[in-house]
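User: Please run a holo structure prediction.
Assistant: Happy to. Please share the sequence and the ligand.
User: Here you go; the ligand is flavin mononucleotide.
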Amino acid sequence: MEKQYIALLFDNKKIMIRTNRFYDLFNFGTKIHLMKFISKPYESAALRLPNRFVMAPLTRQRAGVGLAPTMLNATYYAQRSSAGLLISEASQISTKGQGYVNTPGIYSEAQIEGWKLVTRAVHQAGGRIFCQLWHVGRHSHPSIQLDGSQPVGPSAVKETTLITTPSGKVEPVLPHSLTIGEIEATIADYAKAARNAMEAGFDGVEIHGANGYLIDQFLNDSSNVRQDIYGGSIDNKCRFGLQVVEAVVDAIGSHRTGIRLSPSGTNFGVFNLEPVATFEFLIHKLNDYNLAYLHLIEPVASSLENLPQYLKRVTPHFRPIYKGTLITSAGYTFATAEAALNDGLADLVAFGKDFISNPDLVERYAADAPLNSYDIATFYGGDDRGYTDYPYLLRK
Ligand SMILES: Cc1cc2nc3c(=O)[nH]c(=O)nc-3n(C[C@H](O)[C@H](O)[C@H](O)COP(=O)(O)O)c2cc1C
């Protein structure tokens, strides 16, 4: 292993030591703190981040009138703006793309104005924020669709899990299989939403290609039984997602475009006969776009029992394939995040639930401080409780 020289400051006198250790040592007075890898800045052609913490996209179902963000949402995001990068909660690109109540949109003027409150507050607090662009596809219900219509998907195949509606969990309905014309219109909706996100002041967008929603429904065999150019072979199943990437890149530029994928995800009953080959093909292709980043979700191990075709860990498998900035996420602790960065598995690590309950997650890690625990009851919907009232370590 190559030896590294690091600078040590003792009572403001600088000395150099040789070390194999990956930590930088800094002196504050006479007390020495370890500066963790995750606390170091990250720079790429597209991103300039003060640290490697990413706040994962987190649906909170607290949008206001017209599904537009409000000052409450602005406060929530600004509170968390010490993260290197914030990714907004998933935001539907069209009315058709909505699958839950009170999730924000990014398709109307009022929504753009609402998001401006959020982006301004985050930027004023020194942060950076990408907007996650979302279409739920078949994971919706007529009672959630604003016009009461049938949800859409790659194919007329029902989801296997219940759908949460305002009147409780209900059986899914048969989705309408998108025609080629409707697919083209949906791709145009993604591009328009990306332009809207720029108008709203976001620093970029993250295409939600994960977790059993529309793009993932195209990628998976259980939800895509099409026999045209969007189904059947691996390149056909990847076509829709890649066309969305291309349209968004054309609309706002590759350096402002990221994508999130769940290569071993089985959310809402999506099932892939050849997940590794499918995502290897897709991720190889993504190299051509020079994106701001690829964001991978690690699977929950228990969801893959008796499914030998799935990778139990996706980041180590895809790291050598993807040439650009890689974010890994799901289930990380500080220690495992630190190890992933040190091992070169990823460039950035996203945290979800810990950011819900710790607005100052970054500062807490730097101080080795304990974390607030999160309250699942207030994850989805409600007011400021469980949203903007989690305590800081040191009240600002
Ligand atoms: C309340 C909640 C809302 C979520 N909303 C989204 C979302 O809008 N988009 C998305 O891609 N993932 C969403 N996720 C998944 C998270 O981004 C993240 O992958 C997951 O929480 C696992 O990471 P963690 O173990 O650090 O919490 C959500 C998770 C939770 C708990």
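The first strand starts at residue 4 and ends at 10.
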